[in-house]
Write a structure and sequence with these properties.
The complex is a heterodimer. By secondary structure, chain A is mainly alpha-helical. Chain A has a domain of 326 residues: Cytochrome Bc1 Complex, Chain C (Up-down Bundle), CATH 1.20.810. Chain A has 20 helices and 10 strands. In chain A, the strands form 5 sheets. Chain A has a two-stranded antiparallel ribbon. Chain A has a two-stranded antiparallel ribbon with strand order 2-3. In chain A, strand 5 and strand 6 form a beta hairpin. The N and C termini of chain A lie far apart (82 Å). Chain B is mainly alpha-helical. The radius of gyration of chain B is 25 Å and the shape is extended. Among the domains of chain B are: 80 residues, Cytochrome c-like domain (Cytochrome Bc1 Complex, Chain D, domain 2, Orthogonal Bundle), CATH 1.10.760; 81 residues, Cytochrome c-like domain (Cytochrome Bc1 Complex, Chain D, domain 2, Orthogonal Bundle). Classes of the chains: A mainly alpha, B mainly alpha. Chain A: Its main location: membrane. Chain A: It comes from Isoptericola luteus.
């Protein structure tokens, strides 16, 4: 086998030799070749997930630095350092003292703390905007439902990571947050008080919660996050990335750029931009100045005590709930005033996120794979539901800031609270209705464009005195974008009885799904079919110049949708 | 000097000279003019002036002899400190009725304020205007002040005194612009919704510690821009606006380069 003359394929450079050495032993070349040639579609909104991913990398880097100096202990000490002046000689926990120490005595410590905190806020914001993109474009459809679940889990883990980290410095503000968490745990019937004692190792605040949160924050949650991010990215590569609709893009291809050099370069560039922005924020904008809040002590609460933004919806939910709903049954207190806003409402919101892909799959009856994204207007009910969900979330977050709204806009906090109580129930419905109407309107506009073309603004007068405006037909690419979607019709179900009049099992469940399906797809605008287009153009030049006033194909069930003409 | 001499016949030379002369005159006047005296003992003349001012500006609500009406409380015994606080911050005379009297540019000058304070103080004994030494932030200890502020003030005024909301449109104002003297007077007299922190609750020394802590906050944050000192809500807002704004802007730019 051995030859004295090297073949042309044999590497000559040191790098080449090293790569060949590795490849002969691990077959890494096969994998690399695949990954290098992997095609990714290009769109700015596909980089929203990268915001979360890269802020997480920054979180890991800055977090490792912080663990070198943070001491998770609730033992009490007197603070002896010179800075900050307002803390000299104060009695505080070692955790709080080490947070001050790393901020004022460790070189670059405050910068790292602030980068870490800003990254956490941007990490959660990145997750939210990424989820919005995935939801509104229908990227959660088959085969990506599982990845949606993984993503939702990542979001919840992100919340927990944020909350556990926020509580570590043991300052008054985060201590109040922990007290709320304690209250929420205690509001759970029967197991509540036992669970609280279990979590805090005795009565709140005890001496164990900071070390426990530390383990959760730097070991448990990051490990889970890393593992799930691995799964998330693996599934993304395995399922291939989705792409926006456009000419030449189908469920069977991926139009984009190869990973190396184009996509990898863009990704690396994006990483450095994100790192840069976070470092800039950490360097110039103060965040969570714990020495202003002081070491934790269960008695004081400062005005404007709020959690970080991603937990603000919970705070708002608690602030909106009337207090009279606490009831006592046979000597046992049922704190509905805490249980409903802090457990049931977030539970409902998260359940919606977890089950939505499966509900939509069921009501469409669609079992095919989808790799081309939906334009949000083409699925009006989904878009409406998404906006309604966001509206509820934003109203709760605003309610959590009701005191700041009151002081900054000179309003009564009581009036604001009542307005939000009503808005929480009315707002999402209104948002749903108006969004759905806008989507249907946009779809009708698309139909109009496809059938009659662009207005050119050119007015022609005929010899007989008639004026018409000339319309320019759409080119193929424009038309493809506007006709290449599917308007699902409500589910058709089998009749209640078979041919021999025997009642069919499961009919009632089918009826329920059908009713839900009607809610989704009763109002819809069908895409222009080739025959319709043919008909619109068949009258030749005349028809193109003179748009007919035939109604667009707006299909409607029992309720009629108003026609635009 | 040569350049100056060459220009002495310039047609703007008289104007420049006139401006210089005005500047010098004004400067000398400002330096030498007697500052409005803060008379330690109120003269009867002051009280008379104060009474007239009171009847012209305050009597409609507080009654002709400050005995109070259904609209406003009696001022007998509130002392000079309360008057000085309310009038020098512009809260009184009140701009308009509302949940609480808002601070505005003061309507009375220092002399008139002193006269009003003297008049009201003459109606009955009450807390006097604190001396400069009593409110000197440099004499206080910010660390002691921080602990006192946290337990007594922060629940309404926010941890660093950025202000907070109370019920029904009332509010605890921000303290970052408030003068040290006014902070002391507010603790002493408990204006509007604020409780009175008399010398038994917070000794004059402790009041000075609190002033020292608030004064320290005016230097800003060690961490950079303080973003209004409003805590996590404003931080979240900035994370979305600056952080996500810049990053998404960059993503659009990266995405736009190819297509």
């Amino acid at each position: 086998m051995s030859t004295t003359t090297p073949t042309a394929a044999e590497p000559t450079t040191p790098v080449g030799k090293a790569a060949d050495y590795l490849d002969q032993r691990t077959k890494v070349g096969v994998l690399t070749k695949q990954l290098v040639r992997k095609v990714f579609p290009d769109h700015w909104s596909f980089m929203l997930g990268e915001i979360a991913l890269f802020s997480f990398v920054v979180l890991l880097i800055s977090g490792v630095f912080l663990t070198m100096f943070f001491e998770p202990s609730m033992a009490l000490v007197h603070y002896e350092n010179e800075h900050p002046a307002s803390m000299q000689g104060q009695l505080m926990s070692v955790a709080f003292a080490s947070t001050l120490d790393m901020s004022f005595e460790v070189r670059g410590g405050l910068l790292m703390r602030q980068i870490h905190h800003w990254s956490a806020l941007v990490f959660m914001a990145g997750i939210v905007v990424h989820m919005m993109r995935v939801f509104f474009t229908g990227a959660f459809r088959k085969p990506r439902e599982l990845n949606w679940l993984v993503g939702t889990m990542l979001m919840i883990l992100g919340l927990l990571a944020g909350f556990s980290g926020y509580s570590l410095p043991d300052d008054v503000l985060s201590g109040n947050g922990l007290r709320i968490a304690d209250g929420v745990i205690k509001s759970i019937p029967i197991i509540g008080s036992y669970t609280s004692y279990f979590v805090f190792g005795g009565e709140f605040p005890g001496e164990h919660i900071i070390p426990r949160l530390f383990t959760v924050h730097i070991l448990l949650i990051p490990a889970l996050l890393l593992a799930l991010i691995g799964v998330h990215l693996f599934l993304m590569v395995l399922n291939k990335h989705t792409q926006y609709p456009g000419s030449g893009r189908t469920d069977k291809n991926v139009v984009g750029y190869p990973a190396v050099p184009v996509f990898a370069t863009k990704m690396a560039g994006n990483f450095f931009i994100i790192f840069g922005v976070l470092a800039l924020m950490g360097g110039t904008m103060a965040i969570n100045n714990v020495w202003n809040y002081g070491p934790y002590d269960p008695s004081p609460v400062g005005a404007g005590a709020q959690p970080d933004w991603y937990m603000l919806f919970l705070e708002g939910s608690l602030r909106l709930m009337p207090g009279q709903t606490e009831i006592v049954i046979a000597g046992y207190t049922l704190s509905l005033n805490v249980l409903v806003p802090a457990v049931i409402i977030p539970g409902l919101l998260f359940t919606f996120l977890f089950v939505y892909p499966f509900i939509e799959a069921k009501v469409t009856g669609d079992k095919r794979e989808h790799h081309v994204l939906d334009r949000p207007r083409n699925v009006p009910t989904r878009t409406g539901l998404g906006v309604a969900f966001l509206t509820a979330f934003i109203i709760l977050a605003l309610a959590g800031s009701n005191d700041l709204i009151a002081t900054h806009f000179d309003m009564s906090i009581n009036a604001i609270t009542w307005a939000f109580r009503i808005l929480f129930f009315v707002g999402p419905w209104f948002a749903f209705w108006i969004t759905k109407r806008i989507c249907l309107g946009l779809q009708r506009k698309d139909r109009e464009l496809v059938l009659h073309g662009h207005e050119t603004g050119r007015i022609v007068r005929f010899a007989n005195g008639e004026y018409i405006e000339v319309h320019r037909p759409l080119d193929e690419h424009e038309r493809w974008l506007r006709v290449n979607y599917e308007a699902h019709a409500p589910l058709e179900i089998e009749p209640a009885t078979d041919a021999r009049g025997v009642r069919r099992r499961g009919y009632k469940a089918d009826r329920r799904w059908q009713r839900l399906s009607r809610f989704f797809f009763e109002d819809r605008v069908e895409p222009v079919t080739p025959s319709e287009l043919e008909a619109a153009h068949s009258h030749g030049e005349h028809d193109e110049l003179e748009p007919s006033h035939g109604s667009p194909e707006l299909v409607s069930g029992s309720r009629s949708v108003e026609q635009e003409h | 000097m040569k350049a100056l001499a060459a220009r002495r016949h310039h047609r703007f030379a008289p104007v420049v000279l006139l401006l210089l002369a005005l500047l010098v005159t004004g400067g000398v006047y400002a330096a030498l003019a007697p500052s409005p005296a803060q008379a330690d003992t109120a003269s009867t003349e002051d009280i008379e002036t104060g009474k007239k001012l009171f009847q012209a500006n305050c009597a409609t609500c507080h009654g002709p002899n400050a005995e109070g009406t259904t609209e406003a409380p009696s001022l007998v015994g509130v002392g000079a400190a309360a008057v000085d606080f309310q009038v020098s911050t512009g809260r009184m005379p009140m701009q308009m009725s509302g949940p609480q009297a808002a601070a505005k540019p003061p309507q009375m000058d220092e002399e008139q304020t002193a006269a009003l304070a003297a008049y009201v103080a003459s109606l009955g004994p009450g807390p006097a205007i604190p001396t400069d030494e009593q409110v000197d932030a440099a004499e206080g200890d910010a660390a002691e002040g921080m602990a006192l502020f946290r337990t007594n003030c922060a629940m309404c005024h926010n941890a660093v005194g950025a202000g907070g909301a109370l019920s029904e449109g009332k509010y605890a104002p921000a303290l970052l612009e408030t003068s040290d003297r006014n902070i002391y007077q507010a603790m002493l007299t408990g204006p509007q919704s604020m409780p009175v922190f008399n010398d038994a609750t917070l000794t004059p020394k402790e009041k000075r510690h609190i002033i020292a802590y608030v004064a320290e906050q005016r230097d800003g944050s060690a961490g950079g821009l303080s973003l209004g000192n409003l805590g996590p809500v404003s931080e979240g807002l900035w994370a979305w606006i600056v952080g996500l704004g810049l990053i998404i802007g960059a993503a659009v730019w990266i995405g736009a380069k190819s297509s």
